[in-house]
Amino acid sequence: MNISEKTKTLLAGSSVIRKLFEEGREMAAVVGEKNVYDFSLGNPFVSPPKKVKESILRLVDEKEPGYLHGYMKNAGYDEVRSAVAESLNRRFEMHYQPNNIIMTVGAAGGLTCIFSSLLNPDDEVVCFAPYFGEYRSYVMNFYGKLVVVPADTRDFQPNLEELDSLIHEKTKVLLINNPNNPSGVIYSRESLIRLQEILEQAERRIGHAICVVSDEPYRELAYDGAEVPYMPKYIKNCIVCYSFSKSLSLPGERIGYMAISPDIESCQEIEDALIVSNRALGYINAPSLFQLVVKDCLEEKVNVDIYDKNRRLLYESLTAMGFTCVKPQGAFYMLVKSPVANEQDFVNEGKKHHIIMVSTSSFGCPGYVRLAYCIPYETIERSLPAFQKLAETYFNE
Amino acid sequence: MNISEKTKTLLAGSSVIRKLFEEGREMAAVVGEKNVYDFSLGNPFVSPPKKVKESILRLVDEKEPGYLHGYMKNAGYDEVRSAVAESLNRRFEMHYQPNNIIMTVGAAGGLTCIFSSLLNPDDEVVCFAPYFGEYRSYVMNFYGKLVVVPADTRDFQPNLEELDSLIHEKTKVLLINNPNNPSGVIYSRESLIRLQEILEQAERRIGHAICVVSDEPYRELAYDGAEVPYMPKYIKNCIVCYSFSKSLSLPGERIGYMAISPDIESCQEIEDALIVSNRALGYINAPSLFQLVVKDCLEEKVNVDIYDKNRRLLYESLTAMGFTCVKPQGAFYMLVKSPVANEQDFVNEGKKHHIIMVSTSSFGCPGYVRLAYCIPYETIERSLPAFQKLAETYFNE
CA A227 to CA B136: how far, in whole Å? Predict the structure, then answer.
């Protein structure tokens, strides 16, 4: 029995990360769990806000099970869509209507609906490097093509200079991740204003609108009082894909939404297409109980200070040791520049000290490694002598 | 902004059912909710077993939130996969290993993973009419082609006589729904034994194995002591897609699994492909809390007597009035033969009496209507005078 060609490609690509994870496990079996410093996985570890549990208990107690666990419209419960729209309108001075909100199986479920709804085979999705590696799979599902704008490694803002030349007639979507995984950088208001200008020009040139998709699972994870500009305030044809995975530490529950800008071109048709895709892709609807839970918790978030403390320790320690780091402003990732040309050698050198780091080649931006600092503070503390030894390999000769 | 060609087709097809539903709503606004007899939707209405609520409360109380709501392997929690395998092995004398079980976002999520994993564009999925209309969308997502074996309207068993001639080199999957939606018929052991013989012959002829996918959301809804044969006991290359939507009345929670026969050709590769598809399609994993809830409730099911009582009332009343009905053995649907050649005329005539029935043309089997009897007994009782008037249109002249 033959699997599809597309799936063969997916399997080949996916084995890299699995291998890294397994290496970490094998290492732990030999040297002990406490002596392995695994910075590979972006898995939220801070507890959900107390209100999550309270909400589950209240809902199970108060609501009819037929309502709580039953089918609703494919777009989600009306009460949830209304609450999300109101919350976004209040927080970001938007004017969403409830029908602009479609509840989804996480942000990834939203992205997949969008690509299925918009892409014909060979249509192109443009994204800025560095980018979340899974984007390639999401686009490949529907025989689209991911086009990567090379990273601007000066400040990791989107590389607007090179964008225009990569937009063609086949370009349907521009996919943006803000705050960015893997860089931890927040795209600035200035970048977004300039981006809209470039898009308008390009749209006139190619004769059709480009849908800008803002993937924002890390929106609530911003540090030093940094503002994450709300994309649809600057970009006209914008769909926000949001997930509660990080803000409420509920990644396993698969709950998020799409917010379709009321100003988007062909708004009604886009909404209808996304809803029918949500059904046709077998999601049918976002999980029902957790739709109602997140409605209760729209103003809640996890204790971001825990991530912030990790961030400061890691950034300050590693820069003091001589590493060049990209200062993270959001999310829970930090890029470290490889001290040698081929960052895979740096990754391998790290393993000798039981440090598991991810090469950024799979994020479309070679020459760096990504550290996910969503791990206990104590683990980071314990890793520092190992990083020190790693630094000495390169900087003290 | 243009939506994809595929999505245009989906939208055109989906409007039929929505229109029917909206007509019912409009009707209710005019003549009153109680005077509309809506048999259109297959929405479970019996309460979940008590243990569902107990399990949620216990889990929320006892488990670490990082475990309860966190990421696990894309295939699901190990403890859940083990429990499902054990339960199937015990109930059906199978020999599943935990890694043969992949938890999915409902049965529809499993079907979508399978089609993405196996189909190259233009590959064919064969199914027996009448078939669940959404199958067409699931296959279309990946540019596959649904090939329909015409119904055997003598007994609504799978039409094995016409199957062989529809299997070609492009045939990758045979998709079976048992108990069947819309007919309510259970495919017999004899049918499945003969099916395996035909498949073996066909596989030799076309030179590759065919994956038989058994979509079984209605497995637990069987009446009069009828046995639903366990497909993998008779069919070698079989994947079962199961959902707890009907057995536990949890359709909104999107929880199910795939059970991959340990005997399937290229078992390991198929499993790997399905797991990577589960991730790449944005499901990532089945919702975490409800994975653990269904683990607690594997031996539970809703009170099927409620559906059975509806079934008997409807079947006995309508046949007594002169309608020709297909006696349902499982699920919660019944087919009624249209008394006139074009069943759309029958549907329209029904509306005059405020009876909402679904034409079976969209199930690949014109000439009938489907009645979904998952509605209150009282509604069926109240509908009988309306059905009597409808019968008089045709049988008393």
Answer: 45
